């Protein structure tokens, strides 16, 4: 068996020697009337209060002379007695205390005293909602699982943990509801995570890039959310959640394109209002991608399509502009992207000021200087505003990027170029999958039963079945016949 760097498995002497090179490693000798022992631990990983109050008094007592007796006396779960140096190394790095009867003797007792430092559960920052729960995930894996356990109080909720990353050994938890979720989806997810070969995993975004079906697609193929209520609802549908220790975001799969434009707020409103808001979002996405390319294509190739009254307005607004429409549009689009990046990277208060003042000053100055027309300035501003309606941030970034290929195709072939670029986009989406499931479902392949919660949201009483594409073991969520019975008990 080999060790890191190609060395053989170390002895305890070699292992302790390696740890001693770190200033936060502690090892000391002590004794009682019955036995002499050695205590080893990494100070920055151990809860010293737990160690001093719950463990140390018993270790110092005369109640034990063998490690087995010590294991029975200490009120701590998961005490391990082992001679395996790999296990000792792993547990030391996980915040365990090692007690042995000689400095380099085996076996050793491993006692859990891990310190858990994490911020408190707070409000969602990316998926904020006016109504509904106000909790968001944090960086602690145990806290995040607790938030789901509180919402799904069922023994069928399964949590499967893995360690990913040759160097970081990051904990990754796969969550699903047994007897509901398709076993094939579970096996696919777990196998892909196991196959990850990378030294360090810092966030769930690392995982989604490594297990996606198509690594070269700009579209996210796993839904990223920070809301526990959304995760618990999606798990009940038969999907799978992936949590990463140290990340406040949870991955959900398999997913579809329409889910990225569905805010979880939609389920807190009346179905008519929710459907209206969802359609507004879809229209805003199409508007954000296409409106500037259509402007460029029309002014470059298709003047005859513009009504005379509007044509006079366009001519007067562009009279002093020396740039062709494509350069004019690229100038404003790139300016908007620069303002977004500056606002996102600067401290919050400064970023808001830069976004507002910079947009006003640059927009006004560019029109007065004759670098762009006021009509295009309005169009680009509305396009940027429309792109902010996307509920999932990762998809919002994709929408921002898609405008530029459409712009270049519009400059190349006009409206025909826009249609050609749209055909390329649809071909890519038709071939795209999420955990092997169609990404465009229920639009293609068309599934009428799943359209109830896709482009619009119908009443809950009509959602008696889980999504057909998930191939769940229990397709029915409840009896549709009983759901239609609305009579009061006294009728």
Can you walk me through this structure?
With 491 residues, this protein is of the alpha+beta class. The chain has helices at residues 12-19, 48-60, 67-73, 85-92, 141-151, 183-194, 204-211, 228-237, 271-301, 308-317, 325-345, 348-368, 374-387, 393-413, 415-431, 480-483; strands at residues 25-31, 36-42, 80-82, 96-100, 108-112, 157-164, 170-177, 223-225, 240-244, 250-253, 433-434, 437-438. The strands form three sheets. It has a five-stranded antiparallel β-sheet, sandwiched between helices. A five-stranded antiparallel β-sheet has the order 6-7-9-10-8, sandwiched between helices. A two-stranded antiparallel ribbon has the order 11-12. Strand 9 and strand 10 form a beta hairpin. Helix 9 (271-301) packs antiparallel against helix 13 (374-387) and helix 11 (325-345) packs antiparallel against helix 14. The longest helix is centred in the middle third of the chain and has 31 residues, at 271-301.
Structural class: alpha+beta
- Spans of 5+ residues with little confidence (pLDDT < 50)? 1-7
What is the percentage of strand-forming residues? 5-15%
Q: What's the overall geometry?
A: elongated
Q: Work out the helix count.
A: 16
In total, the number of domains comes to 3
InterPro entries: Spore_Ger (IPR004995), UPF0353/GerABKA_families (IPR050768)
Keywords: Membrane, Transmembrane, Transmembrane helix
GO cellular component, one term: plasma membrane
Transmembrane segments: 279-301, 375-394, 406-430
